[in-house]
Amino acid sequence: MANLTLVQAINLALIQEMERDERVLILGEDVGLNGGVFRVTEGLHKRFGGKRVVDTPLAESGIIGASIGLAMAGLRPVPEIQFEGFLGPAYDQICSHAARMRTRTRGAMTVPLTIRIPVGGGIHAPELHSDSPESIYIHQPGIKVVMPSSPYDAKGLLISAIRDPDPVMFFEPKRIYRAFREEVPEDEYTLPLGKARVVCEGNEMTMVSWGASVVQCMQAIERGGRSIELIDLRTLYPFDMDAVEASVKKTGRCVIVHEAPKTCGFGAEIAARIMERCFLYLESPVQRVAGFDTIMPYYKLELDYMPDADRIARAIEETAAY
Amino acid sequence: MPIKSAFTTTIDHVSILDVNANFDEKLGAGLIPDADLVRLYEHMCICRHLDEVAFKLQRSGRMGTFPQNMGQEATSMGAAYALDKTDWLVPCYRENAGLFWRGLSMEMILLHWMGDERGNAIPRELYCMPLAIPIGTQMLHATGLAWAAKYRGEKRLACTFFGDGATSEGDFHEAMNFAANLDIPVIFFCQNNFWAISVPGKIQCSAPTVAQRAVAYGMDTIQCDGNDIFSVVYCVRKAAALAREKGRPFFIEAVTYRLGDHTTADDARRYRDQAEVDAWKTRDPILRIRKFLTTRGFWDDTKEAALAERAERDVAAAVERAESIAPPNRDDFFNNMYATIPPDLALQRDTMQTHGIGQDPSQIDGAVIELPAKTSH
Asked: Which of A25, A31, A229, B19 sits at 20 to 30 Å (Cα–Cα) from B255?
């Protein structure tokens, strides 16, 4: 076991997958000699050479479009988009091609590709470096979407993503890249995509979250004397509705927390599914604590935008009091 | 049939005031009056000092990420000088010198990088677009701005700035193609500084010049020494004349160098040789103007000392203004979303301090949890 940050755990997963499988290659802006702007690919260029760790031209559509070609030819590209705010030019390739290739060729062509993207706010970054666009890609059929909240999960989920036969968007919450360390096995291991993790058990209320917000959820839970069951979805598509259902049937109340804007955020889907599956078990309306329906403000106000322990604690009390 | 040449071309390179401050009288005489050159020099030095101060502000936690302009002051400054005050400047984020010359106050740029949208509230009469953070997207806006001028029968043109890395983005090619094929008077001004963060220019463009990309679009083009303000002014005037008289776009490749890191979040020592940086330091655009002005008797150590004091004073005053502005109101990011705020968004705004987001308070009997107001960040 090693005590690793999220960045180190992802770095280790990449090294192990590249050693295990020659088809795996990394491409993107500044991923080579510089080791990525967050140092996620640190040391990989030296270890595997410029053929397998490739600094590309500055073109996100190019990075993803070329990765689709690499993947269709049987390789396992792991492209990086430097920040979630730069996904725009890649959107067409992701949604018009990667997502559709299997079904439109009826399986003759597939796109086993894992796109790594730092995501979210809270690091005092410039604009378009702090957004949470995961719902856009969850809404796009044909793509799997992952967002880990811990080093252990990140390593196991990334290895699963790389081995997955379909395109996966692997969002890395940059706020917790180095926020804490965790024991991570040095050997390779996988965690199944589509399985949630129960972070802590409780019987008074269910809380559902993912990514860096899980940290704020824990802060809010630890603050009060309530018995709350926190579920980290980890994979946002496919998502583990069974875990949510089992918990909500036990607690009768649910708060969903995410950093992305509220309207059409993934919390809306979870809330609707709870209505479908747990309606008669509910003691209170499902509550969402989310980013507001605004553009993510520049960093002077970013903490007012993102759900923090105060807002989550308030939602807990409102939901409990209903 | 014998194979014939279908097309040949050459790309001109312009250099007027070289590294050793040798001056080409034939090209350069009368290009910039001496008094103007002194003012340009002073502005470049003040811009350089702002870079140094901004770096320290970032390191001491008083400002977020900041991209230094160091080494590239002659490009945007020369362009802004050569253009009319009502021509659009459409920057990337390393054009402080040109924006300041146009009249943008330093504290606006500081505010932007201090994480405050009010730094982008640029007075309309300056004809400056706000900094463009995603790479290579703003050239299409410049095309639209110039198109609008053409539509209205105005002689206004747009000059857009971008780096060598941006020429890899699809939007760059679309902007070039629109402007060339629809006859739109845009100046595409490439600051070829050889580095897109850590990625060297040869990964962006295999051709010997970036300028020749324009040839493929049927656009006139020229390459200049971007560290020589005379060359920049010469080329921008040539481009502006074509744009105004014929309504045609023009591509300028200004060869320059990013002397600093990409931003304060970067450490260029990881990927480029110090020897290369040191060689470019001798080609600093500021050094050669000082030498030129000194040789001609327009500048001396006394003036230099006075300028250093003025730079310190001006920048300190700008920092003071940027830091003493009242914190933004947390309603601001709601109130500026639409011309009229939608009711649901207004509810989010008005209940953000007291209730769960959007929860109807009437549903929660006695459960309004009043929390102490947050302190400003």
From this structure: A31
Q: Are A318 and B365 in contact (CB < 8 Å)? A: no
Would you state the pLDDT for residue B185? 98
Minimal-distance CA residue of chain A relative to B352? A311
In chain A, the percentage of residues whose pLDDT exceeds 70 is 100
Q: Is A29 on the interface with B (CB under 8 A)?
A: yes
| Beta-bridge mates of residue A228 | A205
Whether B377 sits among the annotated catalytic residues: the reply is: no
Nearest to B169 among A58, A293, A297 (CB): A58
Task: Give the pairing of strands A182-184 and A2-4.
Answer: antiparallel
Chain B partners within 8 Å of A262 (Cβ):
348, 357-358
Task: Give the closest-approach CA distance of B264 to chain A in angstroms.
Answer: 11
CATH (residue range A2-184):
3.40.50.970
A288: closest CA among A263, A305, A320, A310? Answer: A263
Three-state SS for B105? coil
Residue ranges of domains in chain A: 2-184, 197-321
Question: Nearest-CA neighbor of A209 among A176, A233, A238?
Answer: A233
Contact B183, B248 (CB under 8 A): yes
d(CA A65, CA B327): 43
% of chain B with per-residue pLDDT over 90: 90
The phi-psi region of residue B79 (left if phi > 0; otherwise alpha if psi is between -120 and 50; otherwise beta) is alpha
pLDDT at B371 over 90: no
Count the neighbouring beta carbons within 10 Å of the beta carbon of residue B156: 19
Please identify which of the residues B94, B156, B213, B258 carries the catalytic annotation: B258
Tell me which residue range forms the domain holding B42: 13-324
Q: What percent of chain A has pLDDT over 90?
A: 97
Digit-coded pLDDT (tens) for B133-149: 999 999 999 999 999 99
Tell if the CB–CB gap between A29 and B171 is shorter than 8 Å.
no
3-state secondary structure string across B190-209: EEECCEECCEEHHHHCCCCC
**Residues of chain A found within 8 Å of residue B136, distances taken between Cβ atoms:** 58
The predicted structure's pLDDT at residue B375: 41
Q: Is the pLDDT at B373 greater than 50, yes or no?
A: no
Q: CATH 3.40.50.920: does it fit domain A197-321?
A: yes
B171 within some domain: yes
Residue A56 main-chain phi, psi, to 5 deg: -100, 170
The count of domains in chain B is 2
Can you tell me the distance from the alpha carbon of A308 to that of B189, in angstroms, rounded to the nearest whole number? 44
pLDDT digits 0-9 by tens, A146-176? 999 999 999 999 999 999 999 999 999 999 9
- CA-to-CA distance for A65 and A92, rounded, in angstroms? 9
Residue in the structure block whose two tokens are 């507001």: A292
At what angle are helices B106-113 and B34-59 packed, to 10 degrees?
A: 30
Residues B346 and B231 grouped into a single domain: no
- The CB-side HSE value for A321 (13 A sphere, CA atoms) comes to 17
* Residues sharing a CB contact under 8 Å with residue B273, sequence separation 6 or more, in sequence order: none
Burial B167-179 (b: 16+ CB within 10 A, else e): bbbbbbbebbebb
Q: Which residues of A touch B133 (CB under 8 A)?
A: 85, 126-129
Element spanning A67, H or E: helix A60-72
